[in-house]
Amino acid sequence: MKKTLLAVAMASAVLAIPSHAQDAAPAATPAPAPATPAAPPKLPEIMKPETTATLRAAQKEWQVAVGKEVNVAKMLELYTKFQFSPDLQPKLKEIFGTERPFAIQRVAGGPKGQINYVGGLAPYTYLQGNGTDFSWTEMALKLSTDKAGRALNTDSTWPSLMVTRPGGSLSINDIGMTTRAVYGADNVGYGTALIKVGSVVVRDSAPGSSEIKEAMRFEGIEGKSDVRRRGAMAEIIYSNSVKAIVFGDERVERSNFAMHITNVPVKALADLTRQLRDQQGADMENEAEKKRTLKTMTDFGKRMVTAGATLFIDDISAAYHGNVASLKGRVSFQKVVEADFSNFNALMKKIVAHFEVRVPVALVRDVARVFAGKSVDPSLPDAAKQIDAGADAVVSMVVGKTVSGGFGVVVQDELRTVIDIKDGKVTVNGKAIEVPAGVLNSLKAKPAPQAVPQPAPQPAQ
Q1: For residues 166 and 217, what is the distance between their CA atoms, to the nearest angstrom?
Q2: 54 near 91, Cβ under 8 Å?
Q3: pLDDT tens readout for residues 312-337
Q4: How many structural domains is the chain composed of?
Q5: DSSP-derived 3-state class of residue 222
Q6: Are 368 and 417 part of one and the same domain?
């Protein structure tokens, strides 16, 4: 359900900021916390095919209008006069309540040399007719650039956006997004993109009941991306955090994910920007476009690896009952050459990784109590004792086997271990681990697409 709403928001943003939002998508996507004990309910159909087709058509019409223009000031001015085709206008009006969604206009004022625009989207309810509807309050948008057309600053606020369906809903509240980017001669944008969301709330009703109750809530979501140039190389920084995750009677106080990638060739970023720009202007079917995008991103990933890029996991952590479990580490490759990408085993042997994991014993006990409580009848007179005994048994098993097996140590009531990967070998707390052949074969048969953090907003060209 979360992905559905985000897809709608992103599709809308494409119309709002002349194609810049596509590359800002990671920053505009408030990622949920790492694995939670429950997941929002899935919907059979979020956007009907006609809605998706209309949004794609609108995006393509704007891309054709932009052509090869790279000057932000000229693109913004062009958008103030841009009209969608007569065939598309009534379809857009059905979805957004207007034929020109996210219209902007130039306004006076501001620092000398700065060109300012304001715009937004009026409140509206879109009834799709497939059981899933969308409604939102007024969205306000401010944009500015300089006379050279090399800077882009955006500020937007959106009080609420809601998806409703029979028996449930999802709402995103207090949305704010800010971007600050400066584009170089190679049209790569360097700067930051920040999004804050007050809350994301999932509501559902039990089978056969008309009463809708809150099923899950995310509070205080914040996502940030930052791209910095350092000579011939660039650094990509990404983080997201959630202040609280509530599901049923349980509450995770916070979750955090922060990482950065160093030694990213600026030339590779420039080529990526150009290739995605050229693809935007190409007339391709959906599947062909997906395949081309995957190839473009895979090639970019290969160039980062061969250039010696290193992924640093600065912080993956979550707090429960005041106890924090965390992971930190780094991943890189040793002297990879082009031939390695066609030799899975050779590539795996060049991975160099180091991870540090810390889990408070108290956290293991608290989680164990939750699961033990689900298997004990609360009406029993000794229910509390049974739950405690079950939790203690789990702690003894997890901590005992980890320590006695040499896979970790307990320091200050915290279970700690170090995982290293080098020369195709894996060690946990210094002890060699044999990776099952089935795991390697599954990776070899179905390699996962590389997840490459996106730069700050790039201009469509």
Answers
A1: 19
A2: yes
A3: 999 999 999 999 999 999 999 998 88
A4: 2
A5: strand
A6: yes
Residue 442 phi/psi, 5-degree rounding, is -65, -35
In angstroms, the Cα distances linking 104 to 53, 117, 294, 446 are 24, 6, 33, 45
Query: How many Cα atoms occupy the beta-carbon half-sphere of 369 within 13 Å?
Result: 13
Answer whether residue 148 shows pLDDT above 50: yes
The domain of 135 spans 2-320
Q: Is residue 451 part of a domain?
A: no
Q: Read off the tokens for 101.
A: 């969604």
142 and 290 part of one domain: yes
Distance (Å, whole) CA 14 – CA 409: 50
Please identify, among 320, 350, 381, the residue that sits at the C-terminal boundary of a domain: 320
Q: Which of 460, 48, 38, 42 is nearest to 277 (CA)?
A: 460
- pLDDT tens readout for residues 385-396: 888 888 889 888
Question: 């095919």: which residue's tokens?
Answer: 49
Q: How far is CA 374 from CA 367, 370, 391, in A?
A: 11, 7, 12
* The two three-digit tokens of residue 252, written as one number: 């995770």
40 and 131 inside one domain: yes
Same-domain check for residues 310 and 343: no
E strand map for 231-322: 233-247, 250-265, 310-320
What gap in Å lies between CA 69 and CA 277, rounded to an integer? Answer: 10
- Give the model's confidence band at 50: pLDDT under 50 very low, under 70 low, under 90 confident, else very high: very high
Within 10 Å of residue 85's Cβ, how many Cβ atoms?
A: 11
Q: How confident is the model at residue 284 (pLDDT cuts 50, 70, 90)?
A: low
- For residue 24, the model assigns a pLDDT of 33
- Backbone phi, psi, residue 430, to 5°: 85, -5
Measured between alpha carbons, how far is 133 from 135 in angstroms, rounded to an integer? 7
Using CA atoms in the order 38, 39, 41, 44, what is the torsion angle rounded to 10 degrees?
-140
Question: Using CA atoms, how far apart are residues 85 and 111, in angstroms rounded to an integer?
Answer: 36
Mean pLDDT of the chain: 83
pLDDT of residue 455: 42
What is the Cα–Cα distance from 279 to 255, expressed in whole angstroms? Answer: 36
Q: 3-state SS of the chain: helix, strand, coil percent to 5?
A: 35, 40, 30
